[in-house]
Design a protein that fits this description.
The chain is built from eight helices and 22 strands. By secondary structure, the protein is of the alpha+beta class. Strands 8, 11, 13, 15 and 16 form a five-stranded mixed sheet that branches. It is elongated, with a radius of gyration of 26 Å.
């Protein structure tokens, strides 16, 4: 029952609804002996109870009333929620070192109701409410062009081997209570490397050697007209530590390892630790150190807001090919910057997840190798992903 502004109960409405192209048009009258209230909704209305507001003069009240769909019955709603995430260890279960994927569309269909669509948040979490029944929960490969899904599937594979790689990841669920369903994905290293080499994904990155020199200049407090100043290096270190890679994102999304300099107010001490990773001699480097070098260079590129920008290749300068973004022509090709932040965040989630599998933080300034389900082969291919990302950048792209 809906409470009136005076606090008294109002009777349930009678049903008066009809279908329109835009959804359900519902007109109902809520009445008592002394007052009448009208409620109208023009759009898609869920089954069961819905929220409604009545006004009387300068007073108002909001409550749950029986909706227009399926008569006036009260339908209990249940929640299905979970994460879309990078499954670094390929065990199909999300752990603390594995980060979610942002802005992936998830769809619930079945049970005779209209499809329910939602999008994963910055942490990769999604949530959908629906009445009890049998459903299919899936991640569509192709949906509205402005969505990230199609670009995401070009670089990541669903890690559940029971699902055909060419099919859409989907799960049949019986919704009789709240459910948790996760969607784990693996980075397709060959696809990522190919995208960077073919420049179907183009960025303005600089390679690890460039960043080694910039860090070394900061360590030595060198004087000169350097592309990245000592103050800027210090700022980038803070951005990396605090996960401030993008202007629109400022929350902890990635694991605390591998790059932390908590309490390091002395830039030379922090930069010296970085410079060790960037030492040009690879002969004595372990595979994890080589990987960290490329990952850190990638993070410096992205955190800079200058060298990490870029876009996806599109066929022409037609703005309709880049909804929500801007097209930049370069070298006879065209690049759309829509969804590039989602792409970079997924790349960072993948890289830091790999590193976190190998490393355990012992103190604020020391790290050690640890056992991991990540193989040397996968580490080498992951190193190549970030190396290619860094060295194939245009180095002057005008994004």
């Amino acid at each position: 029952m809906l409470k009136s502004p005076t606090g008294k109960s109002i009777v349930y409405p009678y049903e008066d609804s009809r279908s329109k192209t835009t959804g359900v048009l519902w007109n109902a009258s809520l009445s008592r002996k002394t007052a009448n209230f009208s409620v109208s909704f023009d759009g898609n209305i869920r089954t069961g109870n819905i929220s409604a507001t009545v006004d009387s003069g300068n007073k108002g009240a909001t409550g749950e009333i029986a909706g227009p769909c399926k008569g006036n019955e009260v339908v209990e709603m249940f929640e299905v929620s979970g994460y879309v995430f990078v499954d670094v260890d390929a065990n199909l279960q999300k752990n603390n070192y594995e980060s979610g994927i942002w802005n992936v569309v998830v769809l619930l269909k079945g049970n005779g109701i209209e499809d329910i669509v939602t999008t994963s948040d910055l942490t990769g979490k999604f949530s959908i409410e629906a009445p009890a029944g049998q459903y299919t929960l899936l991640i569509p490969r192709q949906i509205d062009e402005k969505e990230f899904n199609q670009k995401f599937f070009e670089s990541y594979d669903y890690s559940d081997t029971d699902v055909n790689a060419a099919d859409e990841p989907e799960k049949s669920i019986s919704l009789t209570a709240d459910r948790t369903v996760d969607f784990p994905f693996l980075a397709n290293t060959e696809a990522l490397i190919s995208q960077f080499e073919d420049q179907t994904v183009l960025t303005n990155t600089r390679d690890a050697e460039f960043w080694r020199k910039m860090v070394q200049n900061a360590v030595n407090d060198s004087q000169g007209n350097f592309e990245v100043s000592k103050a800027e290096i210090y700022l980038l270190l803070n951005k990396i530590e605090n996960n401030q890679f993008f202007k629109t994102i400022d929350i902890d999304l990635l694991p605390e390892v591998p790059f932390q300099f908590k309490g390091e107010t002395d830039i030379e001490r922090a930069a010296d630790a970085l410079n060790y990773l960037f030492n040009p001699s690879d002969a004595n480097k372990t595979p994890i150190e080589l990987f960290l070098r490329e990952l850190l260079a990638a993070e410096l590129n992205i955190a800079s807001g200058k060298y990490g920008v870029g876009g996806f290749e599109v066929d022409s300068n037609d703005a309709s090919l880049c909804p929500g973004g801007t097209i930049t022509p370069l070298g006879g090709k065209f690049y759309c910057d829509a969804n590039i932040e989602e792409f970079h965040l997924a790349l960072l989630a993948y890289g830091e997840g790999i590193a976190a599998q190998f490393l355990q933080l012992q103190t604020a300034n020391s790290q050690k190798l640890s056992s991991s389900s990540v193989t040397s082969t996968s580490l080498e291919s992951s190193t190549e992903v970030f190396s290619t990302f860094n060295r194939t950048g245009s180095g002057g792209l005008g994004f």
